Amino acid sequence: MTDLRPDAPSHLPFRDQEATGPDNGAPVVLLHGFGGDRQTWLNIQTALASKKRSIAFDLPGHGEALDWPRIGNAGVSAKAVGQSLEALELTKVHLVGHSMGGAVAALIALRNPDLVASLTLLAPGGFGSEINHRLLRRYAAATDADTMETLLEQFFGWEFKLPKFLARTAAESRARPGAAATLEAIADEIIDGSVQKTLPRDELAALPMPIKVLWGTQDRVLPTRQAHKLPGVVATHIFERTGHMLHLELPKEVTRLILQNAGC
């Protein structure tokens, strides 16, 4: 088993975070998945706004942090986010991570458990070796809207109607100089040949904060069975007829579970 915890210095500029909602205690920190950006959380942030402050970051190599000097795997991003939270003088946060962002959130909790009040992981990376490496590598290299649409459809459940603007927006973002090459380099770090690096699940289960893991049965990126047989203290929520993008497919349910985990 390969450990995901290399030390890697980095830092996110504050312009790469969006904060919304009332300042009432520990905020919800939202970490997107591979190839995404902070905008993927807009619906969730809107739903959270009446009850919890939320902050969404662009991870290194994504969104407005595309040209950040140090990019890499989840360990690099975990160090970057951790330093940014420290700079923001946040001593307690509710971490929410999707896919690669789930692995990032888990690593932050492992490194600094006193910082994390709760951990909500949506189809997180690192919970098993299996990963659709071909899809992720093609997605990283795609730059035109038609190709992007074909690939993005595989990230969602079979019945989900993909909004046209998602593929167009993703293609526009990917067409920026260096964007595709940066994602391909990150893919090479998170994928070890044809498998992904893994997290110490027993160590995660031993952490003091409440942990929820959410997964869709139609996930074609990371198989749902990676959520099976988790230690009993980890609350596992499996959604039928749902793909890899739970926060976009089921925003109400995801928001409810985030707030529940945050004690709201």
In short:
This protein is an alpha/beta fold and 264 residues long.
Give an account of the 3D structure:
By secondary structure, this protein is α/β, with parallel strands linked by helices. It has a single domain (14-261), classed as 3-Layer(aba) Sandwich (Rossmann fold), CATH 3.40.50. Helices cover 36% and strands 15% of the residues. The protein contains 10 helices and 9 strands. The strands form 2 sheets. It has a 7-stranded mixed β-sheet with strand order 1-3-2-4-5-8-9, with helices on both faces. A two-stranded antiparallel ribbon has the order 6-7. Strand 4 (93-98), helix 3 (100-111) and strand 5 (116-122) form a beta-alpha-beta unit. Helix 1 (42-48) packs across helix 10, helix 4 (133-141) runs antiparallel to helix 7 and helix 5 (145-153) crosses helix 6 (164-174). The chain is globular and about 45 Å long. The relative contact order is 0.17. Residues 1-25 are annotated as: Disordered. Keywords: Acyltransferase, Transferase. Its EC number is 2.3.1.12. This is Dihydrolipoyllysine-residue acetyltransferase component of acetoin cleaving system. Residues 28-255 form the AB hydrolase-1 domain.
The secondary structure category is alpha/beta
What series of H and E elements makes up the topology?
EEHEHEHEHHHHEEHEEHH
How many angstroms does the end-to-end distance come to?
Answer: 37 Å
Strand tally, please? 9
CATH superfamily name? Answer: Alpha/Beta hydrolase fold, catalytic domain
Number of helices: 10
GO biological process, one term: acylglycerol catabolic process
Enzyme class: transferase
Pfam families: Abhydrolase_6
Protein name: Dihydrolipoyllysine-residue acetyltransferase component of acetoin cleaving system
